[in-house]
Amino acid sequence: MEKSLTHVALFAAIIAVLGLLPKLQLGFGVPITAQSLGVMLAGCVLGAKRGALAVLLFLLIVALGLPLLAGGRGGLGVFVGPTAGFLWGWVAAAFVTGWIMERGAKAPVLPMAAVASVLGGIVVLYACGILGMSLVLKKSLVESTLLMAAFIPGDLLKAAIAAMLTASLARARPGSLMSRRVATGQ
């Protein structure tokens, strides 16, 4: 239990640190950041429940006012702006990414982590983010989806990085992927 809490806190910290990397602000209020990479990694490494808990811990700290989002943003206001759907979507993205990793515990890590990162960390995240952006910006779902096209190449790169880091971790420290241990009952 104590080890799980430590891992959850560690991945919340990783997501926070990735927010320190400079963001690229697009004209419609949604920045390109590295933090979604941390969300993908949380799911790949920790599994569904722990990955989602890491993101929830991070979001709680942001809600308390710590400026940990890219560009030094924090506080309750970020949960009602153009990025709100993405913030809430991070929880679902980490959970789905971890769930896929758990279900594919017998498959090779690299391709499984790539599939999990794309489906959870991009498809699920975009679904939440586009819906939120559409509501806040009062745009149609089609318009919001078209605005998101600029993010696809970068997010595919993040998914590839998450998969490679997850596979490297599995090689360097066999048994370290909690997402694989959950599925095999270890």
TrEMBL record:
InterPro entries: BioY (IPR003784). It is a multi-pass membrane protein. The keyword Cell cycle does not apply. It is found in: Cell membrane. Belongs to the BioY family. One of its GO terms (cellular component) is plasma membrane. The chain crosses the membrane at residues 5-22, 28-46, 53-70, 76-101, 113-137, 149-170. Pfam families: BioY (PF02632). It comes from the Bacteria. Its main location: membrane. Signal peptide: none annotated. Keywords: Cell membrane, Membrane, Transmembrane, Transmembrane helix, Transport. This is Biotin transporter. GO terms for molecular function: biotin transmembrane transporter activity.
